[in-house]
Structure formats: structure tokens, C-alpha cells
């Protein structure tokens, strides 16, 4: 077998393999996408957060048992972080150098 025929064989096999490959589909979801007709599970209602039915007009939504403690904890942590991070001591090296230089200047003046 000559070198030329070997190269032709390799090239033809490579070309056939490339022709057989499928085009890659992004997402790999149901045909037509997630929001297509018939793609949703039975009983799923689109457009409702956590599948809650909205209350009748003029009435407010009743909170669940976990919501008040969660909002209270979230607010408390937010206030603690804002106050704590704004009042933390400055421990940068440049701040230390400024204080140290001021001390040495004051000592040199005396």
C-alpha cells in the first residue's frame, strides 16, 4: 500500500465520520422549549409564583408561618452587617504607617 492510498483512506474515513455526527442541540429540553404547549407537567399553572392562587380582589395574602421570622432575621442581619462593616477598625498598612509617621514626627519635635 502506497503512502498516497493510505492518506486517501484516512481522509475518507475521517470525512465519513464527520458526516455522521449530529448537530449539537443546546438545552436538550422538550421539543419547542420549556414553555411549549404540552411541555409543562399536569396541573402546572403558568404565571403564578410558587403555584399560589391569588387572593380575591380587596383581600390581602395570608402569610405562612415561616415568613415573619424569616423577614425579621433577614432585616436584623442586614442592619448588623451595615452597622458592623461601617464601624470596623481600619487595619490597613497605610493607616498604620500614617499613625506611626505622626508619632515619630511628634517625638522628633520634642
From TrEMBL:
Q: How does it sit in the membrane?
A: Single-pass membrane protein
Q: Where in the cell is it found?
A: Mitochondrion inner membrane
This protein's record includes keyword Transmembrane helix: yes
Keywords assigned by UniProt?
Answer: Electron transport, Membrane, Mitochondrion, Mitochondrion inner membrane, Respiratory chain, Transit peptide, Transmembrane, Transmembrane helix, Transport
Write out the GO cellular component annotations.
mitochondrial inner membrane
The UniProt annotation puts the region (Disordered) at 1-62
Function, as annotated, reads: Accessory subunit of the mitochondrial membrane respiratory chain NADH dehydrogenase (Complex I), that is believed not to be involved in catalysis. Complex I functions in the transfer of electrons from NADH to the respiratory chain. The immediate electron acceptor for the enzyme is believed to be ubiquinone.
The UniProt entry's sequence similarity note says: Belongs to the complex I NDUFB11 subunit family.
Q: What is this protein called?
A: NADH dehydrogenase [ubiquinone] 1 beta subcomplex subunit 11, mitochondrial
| Classification of source organism | Eukaryota, Viridiplantae, Chlorophyta, Mamiellophyceae, Mamiellales
